[in-house]
Amino acid sequence: MTLGGTADGFGALGIDIGGTSMKGAIVDIRSGHLRSEVVSARTPTDPSALIDGVAALRMALRWPGPFGCAFPAVVRNSCLFKATNLPTWEGLDVGARFLQRIGVAPVALNDADAAGIAEARFAAACGDELSVLLTFGTGIGSALLTGGRVLANSELGELAINGVTFEAAASARTITERGLHASEWVLAAQPYFTVLEVLINPARWIIAGGLSERFGEFFGSLHTAAPLERARFRGHAGIVGAALASCTSDPS
Fold this sequence. Notes:
Blueprint: E1 11-17, E2 21-28, E3 39-42, H1 47-60, E4 68-71, E5 74-76, E6 79-81, H2 94-102, E7 107-110, H3 111-122, E8 131-136, E9 140-146, E10 149-151, E11 160-161, E12 164-165, H4 166-170, H5 172-178, H6 182-200, E13 204-208, H7 215-219, E14 228-230, H8 237-245
Parallel strand pairs: 1-4, 4-7, 8-13, 13-14
Antiparallel strand pairs: 1-2, 2-3, 5-6, 8-9, 9-10, 11-12
Helix pairs in contact: 1-2, 3-8
């Protein structure tokens, strides 16, 4: 298959890798709107299979050049750390491995940070006050936004109360595995929001990830001092942010 780009030069490819599935699309970097269909696949646990899977998404979208790739891990100097839901990726040098295997190294970043970049760029800002974006999927990721920038690699999903982490108590995977109703989820999630508000006093909460598609059902009954809203790009925020990151050395 011959790879192709966008004729006007305003498109960029973003791939968002979650603990369960990965998905990608071409994004209009001027607006954040998707310019292609979203293609997806299961997330492999083996690093080599992961790279092959990302390459297949890229081929399916006929994308020729650099791209952004968001990972459910702390990302430093293109290496992955704290990949809680995919421990076989720990220490993976994304840049070197992708370059060796497919000839292109993506711009790598944390998946929640990618969603935060999309929000900081295209949604209403809170000035210099702190906004906290949380992604609810296989795990719970977080991004800290202030002054239109993202403070990289926060891990608020690891907050533990009585020995139970936020993501173990309230992730979308936990909802599925335990068959939680929305009211039961609220009881589980509320203490973590309460503690975080005491600790960091955000000006607003922003919800992204798969569970954001059911925002009213699950988040409508939470009690927070700061306003709580859904991310502009909902479950596609990570794709949008990854695409933006591929276009600049200072993506936030």
